[in-house]
Amino acid sequence: MLLWKAVTKVVLMQVPMMKVSLLQLDTVWKDKHANLDVISQKIDENQGADIYVLPEMFATGFCNEVDELGETIYGQTVDEMKSLSAKYHAAVCGSLILRDGGKYYNSFLFVKPDGEISRYDKRHLFRFGGEADMFSQGENRVVVEYKGYRILLQVCYDLRFPVWSRNRNDYDVIFYVANWPDSRRKVFDTLLKARAIENQAYVVGVNRVGDDGMGLHYDGGSCIIDFKGEYVGRCPDGEEFVLTEKLDIDALRQFREKFPAWSDADEFSLQR
């Protein structure tokens, strides 16, 4: 039996409008130093957001060389995330190759300015790309609370599995960080909208651009979609870009109260 475990953190402050910045980056293959330098520069040039969202494996690209590139929660990449979060008084989040207890995970970390870290290990590993051979599968669904917003953390391939992200009225926003190739871009666009509509939630999707070391091309598609399936904002295709938009928790709550479809959802449990 797979336990449906929502991990939440309690906060005291709520903001009615949450400013979120999406960093659509051309990730440099296997070069943590170069990627972290670019991220630091982009955040410095786009100050004022409450949260900065980075793509999947933002420090290395989508690599399976876990022994070479994996690091612990005390490593260079997490240290830089904590430093940026504290400096700019904003949460910084994205996924990286994390080593823990002799295993490797594609871990989505959400770092708060006070140094607190929430961790979601990717549940659905992309077997077709060899991810399942190198990484261990996550077990727990993770919801983070930040400034009054409840945020479900998801990674790339998770987007294809709607049961895992089913809203039980326990979150307001889904963050999907991805390395989603342009050959399947239409699927990415369609599923982001579907997840927003069916879950009556904001959806934030952050993808990379450029070419990786495996010969795959990425053209972005990073965007924010509201609870009606409408775009709040979109990054231009094929180029590095920082998109900053506001989420409105009051508008979301009013919509859910007016049209509480979530209350008619079927009960279910997950099993292995």
Give the N-terminus to C-terminus distance in angstroms: 6 Å
What is the β-strand count? 15
The SS-based structural class is alpha/beta
Helix content: 10-25%
What value does the average pLDDT take?
Answer: 94
Task: Kindly estimate the percentage of residues that lie in beta strands according to DSSP.
Answer: 25-35%
Return residue spans where pLDDT drops below 50 for at least 5 consecutive residues.
1-12
What do we call the CATH topology? Nitrilase/N-carbamoyl-D-aminoacid amidohydrolase
Task: Name the CATH class.
Answer: Alpha Beta
Question: How do the helices and strands line up, and which of them pair or pack?
Answer:
Layout: E1 6-7, E2 17-24, H1 32-45, E3 51-53, H2 66-69, H3 76-88, E4 91-100, E5 103-111, E6 117-121, H4 131-134, E7 141-146, E8 149-155, E9 173-177, H5 185-199, E10 202-206, E11 209-211, E12 217-219, E13 223-225, E14 231-234, E15 241-248, H6 249-258
Parallel strand pairs: 1-7, 2-3, 3-4, 8-9, 9-10
Antiparallel strand pairs: 2-15, 4-5, 5-6, 7-8, 10-13, 11-12, 13-14
Characteristic key phrases:
22% helix; disordered N terminus; 30% strand; 7-stranded mixed beta sheet; alpha/beta; 272 residues; 6-stranded mixed beta sheet
